[in-house]
Amino acid sequence: MAGLNKVSVDDINVKGKKVLVRVDFNVPLKDGVITNDNRIQAALPTIKKLVADGGKVVLCSHLGKPKNGPEDKFSLAPAAERLAQLVDTNVKFAKDDVVVGENAKKAVAEMKDGEIVVLENTRFRGAEETKNGEAFAKELADLVDNEVFVMDAFGSAHRAHASTAGVTKFVKETAVGYLMQKEIQYLGNAVEVPVRPFVAILGGAKVADKLNVISNLLEKCDTLIIGGGMAYTFLKAQGGEIGTSLVDLEKLDYCKEMLAKAEKLGKKILLPVDASVAASFPDPIDAEISIENCDADKIPADKMGLDIGTKTQEIFADAVKSAKTVVWNGPMGVFENPVLAKGTIAVAKALAETDATTIIGGGDSAAAVMQLGFADKMSHISTGGGASLEYLEGKVLPGVDVIAEK
After folding, report:
1. Would residue 133 show up in a list of annotated catalytic residues for this protein?
2. 403 part of a folded domain
3. Cα angle at 389 between 387 and 394, to 5 degrees?
4. Which residue in 39, 129, 157, 180 could disulfide with 125, CB within 3.0 to 4.6 Å?
5. pLDDT tens readout for residues 25-57
6. Is 123 a catalytic residue?
7. Do 229 and 275 share a domain, yes or no?
8. Does residue 206 have an active-site annotation?
9. In the annotation, is 131 catalytic?
10. Are 124 and 269 part of one and the same domain?
11. Do residue 354 and residue 255 come from a single domain?
């Protein structure tokens, strides 16, 4: 797998050198206050290592999606402030709308070994960042005297941006941080060299989002479990009655192909046998709702499936019990609603109770596992939704690809 043998922060000597680190400080904010600092916490091992080794550590990240250039509500100032509370060294925030401006240059010039400067939101440079503009990439590299670049933002590794990929052309040394290393190791090994039996669980709403993942995982895993909204397209492809459930009519042939592919490869695809159904989608999403249980392929014409049923929960949990490696991406139902979270809880519980290596592929499944209190029972929870999906598709991630091999 690409990326399993990258130079890491353990392989480089940064004493007295300026190090640009791409972190993922894309934290949720409410009225300028961070509501969840998981991403900052996840970056700490790499930051602390570089500080302890006497590097001059310059951090860059994006936050949110500023549309019209610099906007105060997307400033990284709160993230810099939170970081300052978590490390035992001087942290300076360089407030520059152009990211690499006078404040940043001055702050970096005055740094002592083991100190930290946090740059402003890289997305304030708009298309120069997102279209991998060479001039901006060069400015970032020049700021650290073209010495060292460390990539530790897995959540952005699937994007070839100036701060994730372009900058590597202008520095002498590149390495991955501990977070990247862990992501590459878990996701890469799980898919390429899994301990078997290997069970993959896919959920979420749309088949279209997971086309390549389904196909790639079928080749790698022993059992593929499909739940969530995407299951109904598979059930319809098999001739089932799915009422008003979510369906992707353009993907029926694709689902038939995948079912045939599984049979040909001798792999098991498990689909729901029963479902929790209701007259309509809950509005608001956590509203009280009355549900009934019925066969997943015999849903009444005026009802929609919103979660896997009790029999399915048992079947899916049993499949997990005998596994040695489990990868899970996507909830089993509308988990934001307590009544419709039972399927997702049952799967999370099965994963929490197994001795298998359990890997949660970011996004909604990661949110569900954390909300439901099972986070500490999982081997690895990916910090990247889109990035982990692309990794599971077998794609090469630009932000991993550009880092030097050992």
Report:
1. no
2. no
3. 95
4. 129
5. 999 999 889 998 989 999 999 999 999 999 999
6. no
7. yes
8. yes
9. no
10. no
11. yes
